[in-house]
Amino acid sequence: MTGTPSPAHSPIAVPENGAVSDVRHVLVLPDRDAAEEAAEALGERFGLDEEPQLVRDALAGEDDAEDAQWLVVLRDEGERLDPAELDEFVGEWDGWREEP
């Protein structure tokens, strides 16, 4: 048995996955009220495809729930949101956009 590989050992062509983008923008806001207002306004101003996610980010060593920043996380798989516009937008609530 020489020369010809058996079918069980033949190389198999595996198609490559298409490009997958998991672009996320993280906006940091000073409190929950600001985060909720910003999340609602994001949809109105930018016409988002999906609802932004709100995440409480407790500061290290802080026990008080009031001493927490809030994150607004939004997916931008089409990469259509301009980071400079998001910077300006979140600044209206005394927040900022985290760089990836």
Can you characterise this structure?
The protein has 100 residues and is α+β, with helices and mostly antiparallel strands. It contains two helices and four strands. The protein has helices at residues 32-46, 83-91; strands at residues 24-29, 53-58, 68-75, 96-98. The longest helix is centred in the middle third of the chain and has 15 residues, at 32-46. The radius of gyration is 22 Å and the shape is globular. The relative contact order is 0.26.
Which key features would you list for this structure?
100 residues; alpha+beta; four-stranded antiparallel sheet; 23% strand
Topology:
Blueprint: E1 24-29, H1 32-46, E2 53-58, E3 68-75, H2 83-91, E4 96-98
Antiparallel strand pairs: 1-3, 1-4, 2-3
Secondary-structure element string: EHEEHE
Structural class: alpha+beta
Oligomer: single chain
Mean pLDDT: 81
The rounded Rg comes to 22 Å
N-C termini distance: 56 Å
Q: How would you sum up this structure in a few lines?
A:
The chain is of the alpha+beta class and 100 residues long.
